[in-house]
Amino acid sequence: MDNPKTTSKPFISDIETLRKRAREHIANGVVTFTYQGNAEKTIEILQSVLATEIVCVLRYTMHAVAATGISSDAVKAEFMEHAKEEQIHMNEVAERINQLGGKPNFDPQGLATRAASEYGTAGNLVDMIKENLVAERIAVDHYRELIRYFGNDDPATRTMLEGILVVEEEHANDMHDLLVAHEGHPMLPS
Ligand SMILES: [Fe+2]
Ligand SMILES: [Fe+2]
Fold first, then answer.
1. Is 111 helix (H, G, I), strand (E, B) or coil?
2. Any idea which ligand is nearest the CA of 171?
3. Which residue among 17, 27, 64, 102 is least enclosed by CB atoms within 10 Å?
4. Dist. CA 165 → ligand 2 center (Å)
5. What is the per-residue DSSP string for 19-87?
6. Rounded to whole angstroms, how far apart are CA atoms 36 and 169?
């Protein structure tokens, strides 16, 4: 067998070692011997991601209810669909915090400051679309950075964020399309 110290190939533990290690420190749940991340730091980061997703749920839900004006029905439906998808993200992130031994922070107190995205103040349909587009672009940037940050240290957290990122990019694209449809010209360079 290759010596793990003299080869660049990742080392694979034998089954007996895996079984022995898994029985030690069982109170740590999924945070096992091979977890190379910092669980506390990961939980802290995910609390901010959770707040971001909650704010997105609230903003899209409010927009879906408050949107009025010409051709608002299709936009309302789009906002509501996004609100539901943000809620799925919210649940996924909360579950991951729990798996890592943390307590997901749903406290409304301080929510806006924990979140990367903003709740918004838009009073008309086009401004709502713009606010959502900006919020999605913030989320996309934030999650891309986090995916690189977690790398191979915490593949499960990274994979979860990759899945969320794909949906956030779709959301940004949907908002961009709506903006083009309502303003008649692309706001972003193609
Ligand atoms: Fe989301
Ligand atoms: Fe989104």
1. helix
2. 2
3. 27
4. 8
5. HHHHHTTGGGTT--TT--S-HHHHHHHHHHHHHHHHHHHHHHHHHHHH--STTHHHHHHHHHHHHHHHH
6. 28
Where b means 16+ CB within 10 Å and e means fewer, 172-182 reads bebbbebbeeb
Q: Give the integer Cα–Cα distance in Å for 42 and 52.
A: 15
**Confidence band of 2 (pLDDT split at 50, 70, 90):** very low
Chain center to CA of 84: 14
53 CA distance to ligand 1 centroid (A)?
Answer: 5
Displacement of CA 142 from its chain's centroid (Å): 9
pLDDT tens digit sequence for 3-38: 545 557 878 888 888 888 888 887 788 888 778 889
Helix or strand run (H / E) with residue 190:
none
In angstroms, rounded to a whole number, what is the distance separating the alpha carbons of residues 85 and 188? 24
CA 76 to ligand 2 center in whole angstroms: 15
- CA–centroid distance, 137 to ligand 2, in Å, is 9
Residues around ion ligand 1, judged by CB within 5 A, are 53, 86, 89
